[in-house]
Amino acid sequence: MHITQLNRECLLHLFSFLDKNSRKNLAKTCHKLLEVFQDPLLWSLLNFHSPVELKKDNFLLGPALKHLSICWYSERVKVCNIEDWMKNSFQKDFCKRHENTVSDFLLDVCNRCPNLLSLTLSGCGHVTDDCILQLLKNCPNLKSLKLENCVQITDHTLEAVTLHGASLRTLHVDFCRNVTQAGLERVREKCPSVMLRADRSANMIPDSKPGKKLMLEKASRKLVQL
């Protein structure tokens, strides 16, 4: 039996075991398999591991998307999670391109994926408070929001959760060093049903705090003297 003789349900099941590139390559072989590739039921879950993946055409965004994960830790991307004053001009330009890529992608998610249930962003130094605000507004069914080492996230995101996160049940802001203890307490007060986790966040030195560079330089000098 040839693969194209299988019914749509069987083909969707087979496609579900393939990664995005394999699905795209298989879809190029015939019109029937292309139709399977374009079936929204195939795209309820998406995982990305580098900014480059967000710009490819090997996936579909649509109302069927329920679970989205964007997690990357490669050496090339880590520079986007360090303080701006430590970056040279090349690194700043590099990070700006990534920020535009991520922002554009998340805007597409806002516009096309209103039924999103869970979002995980890890190591994404490009994600801003405004991105999360728009996602909360446009994805009213979002139940789980997990942010890890997203350095641009501040108390504005926590405030957006209290205003627009009516369906939210899980909120993680681990290693998000620009959120404060006061912001976390407001979430606990206004959203008692939300399971909140903030490992190594409010206790870290925020990027936005005035004089941080001087503080770190003094600490470094003291270590040298010791």
From TrEMBL:
CDD domains: F-box_FBXL22 (cd22129). The lineage of its organism: Eukaryota, Metazoa, Chordata, Craniata, Vertebrata. Keywords: Ubl conjugation pathway. This is FXL22 protein. Residues 9-46 form the F-box domain. InterPro entries: F-box-like_dom_sf (IPR036047), F-box_dom (IPR001810), F-box_LRR-repeat (IPR050648), Leu-rich_rpt_Cys-con_subtyp (IPR006553), LRR_dom_sf (IPR032675). GO terms for cellular component: cytoplasm. It comes from Melospiza melodia. It holds the Pfam family F-box-like. PANTHER family: FI18408P1, MITOCHONDRIAL ATP SYNTHASE COUPLING FACTOR B. It comes from the Eukaryota.
